[in-house]
Amino acid sequence: MVPLTLAEHGALAEARLPAVIWDFFEGAAGAEWTARANPDAWRRHVLRPRVLVDVSAPDCTTELFGDRLAAPYGVAPMAYHGLAHPDAECATARAAAGAGALLVVSIFAGRTLEQIAEAAPDGTRWLQLYWLRDREALAALVARAETAGYRALVLTVDAPKVGRRLRDLRNAFALPPGMTAANLAARLTSGAARSRAGRSGIEEHSREQFDPTVTWADLAWLRRRTSLPLLLKGVLTAEDARLAVEHGVDGLVVSNHGGRQLDGTPPASDVLAEVVDAVPADLPVLVDGGLRHGADLARALALGARAALVGRPVLWGLAHGGADGARAVLDLLREELLDTMVLSGRPTLADLDRSALAPWPPTAP
Ligand code: FNR
User: Fold this and answer.
1) How far apart are CA 319 and CA 328, in angstroms?
2) pLDDT digits 0-9 by tens, 68-105
3) What is the DSSP secondary structure assignment for residue 182, as one 8-state letter?
4) CB under 8 Å to 140, separation ≥6 — which residues?
5) Ligand 1 center to 275 CA (angstroms)
């Protein structure tokens, strides 16, 4: 079966993956309310098509921090792609580069930053960081990322610790033997492989290694160590968006971490406009969470995002088809975006503004 939707990629992945790994990918915090709300919320914005527009040459190419992308899209940072496929992040890097998509590499990648760069030298890559207690390890990673051609840093700020993910607790989830965070010393990663009844190795590891004391004042420390653009991922309010701008951040990723951190936070699509409106017009605001169709990408752009990131669907493609599967997921998203642009009479990204959307159900007059 050739998958025609992202959901069909998901079904193929679920059939292939061990249940505990599927649960780690799909699972989220608490009652998983936020995780369920994410995809549904995009569809609460209906599309307002314009007609009799020349749509013969739609164009969704874009530039982000000086790099060309085939569409305003990318792979969200996700730990341990090796859980999906033995080629791990090297396969994802080839897929992203082939599809002209950005790849945000997680600090918990299972391949080194250098191996990932080598796998797809022409691709656009950023590095995502959690703030570790060991600042020297963090500084060393930043230096390596610069040398290996990573083009921006994404500091994830919604995770003083990993959220309480019940599926992982029930499964006593821990990294299987041989799976490690390749860019960190063993002493900084081994906790994630410890399986104990009723506990999650991933959560315990985060308690050991993440620094929960970090505040806005600490950003200056990171800033001093790099000339790369710095984005914050996990901002959900206008208040924090304004603070981020005051602290000299170069961009934001509006994200509830796919519902994996604080259950009960709003779907990213519901707060995207609030964040966009709180920052200068030229500050790139990205978004992720629950994008499951190119039309969702069009909705994100119409609400003011400069680009959108996709998480789980890329792992689905990777799980059932390696680099080709992940590439198919990204290509499908881009084709669906172009289809949406053509059929809604909005052939350029500039045409995708808030007039492209209306709330659903319609609000009372
Ligand atoms: C994640 N996410 C994540 N985020 C981050 O900043 N660093 C990380 O290491 C990870 N790891 C991770 C692993 C897995 C298996 C998943 C599913 C997610 C969160 C990710 O970047 C993104 O915010 C969400 O996954 C986006 O939602 P969707 O597209 O998965 O619904």
Assistant:
1) 12
2) 999 999 999 999 999 999 999 999 999 999 999 999 99
3) T
4) none
5) 20
Partners of 154 in beta bridges: 128, 231
**Six-digit token pair at 31?**
């009652």
- Kindly state if the Cβ of 127 falls inside 6 Å of ligand 1: no
pLDDT tens for residues 135-166?
A: 999 999 999 999 999 999 999 999 999 999 99
Ligand 1 and 110: CB distance under 6 A? no
Decide: 38 in ligand 1 pocket, CB within 6 A.
Answer: yes
Instruction: Give the largest CA-CA distance in the chain.
Output: 62
* Secondary structure of residue 47 in the 3-state scheme: strand
Q: In a 10 Å sphere around its CB, with 0-12 CB exposed, 13-18 middle and 19+ buried, how is residue 22 labelled?
A: buried
* b/e code 134-166 from CB counts within 10 Å (16+ = b): eeebbeebbebbbebebbbbbbbbbbebbbbbb
CA distances from 320 to 20, 164, 323, 327 (A): 16, 28, 9, 12
Q: SS3 for 113-179, per residue?
A: HHHHHHHCCCCEEEEEECCECCHHHHHHHHHHHHHCCCCCEEEECCCCCCCCCHHHHHCCCCCCCCC
Give which of 288, 237, 295 is closest to 260, Cα–Cα: 288
State the DSSP string of 72-120.
Answer: SEEEPP-S-GGGT-TTHHHHHHHHHHHHT-EEEE-TT-SS-HHHHHHH-
Amino acid at 225: R
CA 28 / ligand 1 centre spacing (Å): 10
**Is the bond leading into 49 cis (omega within 30 degrees of zero)?**
no
Joined together, the tokens standing for residue 36 give 């369920």
Element (H, E) at 307: strand 307-310
- Owner of token pair 């930053």: 113
To the query of whether residue 9 is one of the catalytic residues in this protein, the response is: no
Atom of ligand 1 nearest to the CA of 106: 9
The yes/no answer to whether this complex scores an ipTM above 0.90 is yes
Give 345's contacts (C-beta < 8 A, 6+ positions apart).
49, 50, 51, 52, 53, 55, 351
